[in-house]
Amino acid sequence: MSDIALIEETARRAIADGLTPEVIESAEAGEWSEALWNRLEAQGLLQPAAIAESGDPAEGLEIEAAVIRAASASAAPLPIAETALAGWFLARHGIEAPSGPLSLAALNGAEQLTFSGGKASGRLERVPWARDSVGIVAVAGDTLLFIDPRSAKLTRGVNMAGEPRDTVEFDAAAPIASAAGADREYMLCRCAAVRALQLAEAAARALEMTVEYAGQRKQFGRPIGAFQAIQHQIAAAAGEVASARVAAQQARLAIAEGGNVLFACAIAKARANDAAGAVARMSHQVHGAIGFAREYQLHRFTRRIQSWRGEYGASAFWNRRIGEMILNERGRSVWSIVTAAG
After folding, report:
1. How do residues 233-256 score in pLDDT, each as one tens digit?
2. Residues in the chain where the model's pLDDT stays below 50
3. Strand locations in 148-223, DSSP E?
4. What is the pLDDT, as a whole number, of residue 242?
5. Helix, strand or coil for residue 178?
6. The CATH number of domain 184-338, selected from 3.30.70.20, 1.10.287.1040, 1.20.140.10, 1.10.3210.10
7. Which residues contact 68 (CB under 8 A, 6 or more apart)?
8. How far apart are the C-alpha atoms of 147 and 140, rounded to whole Å?
9. Which residues pair with 128 in a beta bridge?
10. Which pLDDT score, from 0 to 100, does residue 330 have?
């Protein structure tokens, strides 16, 4: 077993051991999963890039991906991806990440955050897990801000999966730290690549559950998975999962190598959005009514899929960016753009 596979397996076991039915129910009710968070933090899994033994960015990103795959495949009700991303951005700007859950802004054009005289003012909407975080990474102009949510007015909200998505309003709040040179577009791409990975793994888990169910549920004296129509649906879904995983991997490689980042991340998020949405639909079609039952676990993945698809760029947003990039590259074929190193 490779080191990356071992880290992913360790993360999966740690989450599985701590994600009891009681923890799932309390998280659905909006309670913070303290014990599970502490378990993962004690094993050093919440700042995965810090585990890397070399200075190779690719190693850190692969370790991060392993932990996020494990979290997404279990629908862990914690800001594991957000904490990893926020810590990565802070480290990139020379700011030490504190222990505890971290969050980051939605990084969309609707944000109105200003930074003047060492104080931040403005409003951030749909901030993941803001109520539970020790700090939020945001951008004002070209300045990266690390802000304490306790210095803001916070209005609670949730996404379709019941995960916190809060509105925070700052009025001349002094940030915990700040750094110049923030690139909002690059940060958006980085977040989109991680959401693409999460979507791919949630879709893979929904597909696994569907295959298992189709082999057990019988109709007309045989498993429904033996019917050709069901087999076709499952085969198509498997293709969607494979394409989303490959696209997410290509985005990660582009980030590690520092070339063609925008194009690779745009493709990854657009492809994962559409692929995961298709798998979610197929999963519920095959499951029928039981797939919507609260006691059955499929909804924990499909609700996250539907929520994550719109975060850090919906399909229409990224497809438009892809089209603009292609049209702006006059004299070059689409193939040359796709295969370019930068």
Report:
1. 999 999 999 999 999 999 999 999
2. none
3. 153-155, 165-173, 177-180, 218-219, 222-223
4. 98
5. strand
6. 1.20.140.10
7. 48, 80, 81, 84, 194, 197, 198, 201
8. 12
9. 165
10. 79
